[in-house]
Specification:
Layout lengths: L5 E7 L1 H5 L7 E7 L2 E6 L3 E11 L5 E12 L6 E7 L4 E6 L2 E6 L11 E3 L1 E6 L11 E7 L4 E7 L4 E8 L6 E5 L2 E5 L3 E6 L5 E6 L9 E5 L2 E5 L4 E6 L9 E2 L6 E5 L2 E5 L3 E6 L5 E6 L5 E5 L2 E5 L4 E6 L2 H10 L3 H10 L6 H21 L3 H8 L1
Antiparallel strand pairs: 1-28, 2-3, 3-4, 4-5, 6-7, 7-8, 8-9, 10-11, 11-12, 12-13, 14-15, 15-16, 16-17, 18-19, 19-20, 20-21, 22-23, 23-24, 24-25, 26-27, 27-28
Helix pairs in contact: 2-3, 2-4, 3-4, 4-5
Amino acid sequence: MSVKAFKLVSAVEREMLMGDKNYINIECIECCGKNLYIGTNDCFIYHFLLDENVSTAGKITFVATKQLHKYLGFKKPVSELKAASALTRLLVLCDNTITLVNMINLEPVPTGARIKGAVTFTLNENPVSGDPFCVEVCIISVKRRTIQMFMVFEDRVQIVKEVFTPEQPCAVAVDGYYLCLALTTQYIILNYNTGVSQDLFPYCSDEKRPIVKRIGRQEFLLAGPGGLGMFATVDGISQRAPVHWSENVIGAALCFPYVVALDDEFITVHSMLDQQQKQTLPFKEGHILQDFEGKVIVATNKGVYILVPLPLEKQIQDLLASHRVEEALVLAKGARRNIPKEKFQVMYKRILQQAGFIQFAQLQFLEAKELFR
């Protein structure tokens, strides 16, 4: 049964990006606060400021104002962008090289600091160095079966560790010293400090695109066999039941308490609280789905959209209105981590009371009595 958890709102229309140049495609996106960066197949970076407007009726729209665009000088697509806001730097992967550019004017850093030989890269959101003016970057190297860890400063980079893997890695996420890796035939957890590794489960990267995503401290979300979205901790165990995706999921994102997945035709929304599918949004030609500081962004080759979550209280009230008491109570309990304690207690008491009256009206007196208590 469906819940209206998100609305899909356009953020950047194709004309703003490419005008009448049909050959331009969006390859990657990054969002940091109000700053939206787009990398394209013709080696340009575009910088937009994204403003959110809420009408008196509560309707949300986004206005993207183009700041500037910059040609990087290669004949290759910009394949990945990551912002390091503490350094006011944007890390740009193009032609197997990560270049540091200024977040404001998109100029490369004067020292020319760069990381060469990167297939793909990610940032460590739970860094181990403790230095606020440095970001930790993990790359899958062009060298076979090799992962490298770097410390990136404002104008220089420094290699920290090189780790060899039992098979060729094709996707990676990092938490502290732990790497969650999709190899050719399986997922593993590898502690790059101690070298200890733990097998998770088999997976064939030749048949499907692997998904490895850090979703919290020492926890990852992976695209498992049989169309399952699997959760795994750094200890190699799962503390949550899996969610049932379609077989051909392209990307996944987290917006608590929901896991959002993208395939060829749809965006699907599953609850992490009861693993049920709550919403399906038709969305064709999507190829990017990512979450940035709680903002879920999805993109086709030509446009960028934002999945705007409806307030949890509104979702709970909608569930109660359709007499789905159990789901409403599960969602209300899950909302505890998103709402200040005093506000939550007032809201939760009111929801219990409403749920009690619904059960009472359905002659479920024992259940109603428990809720009223």
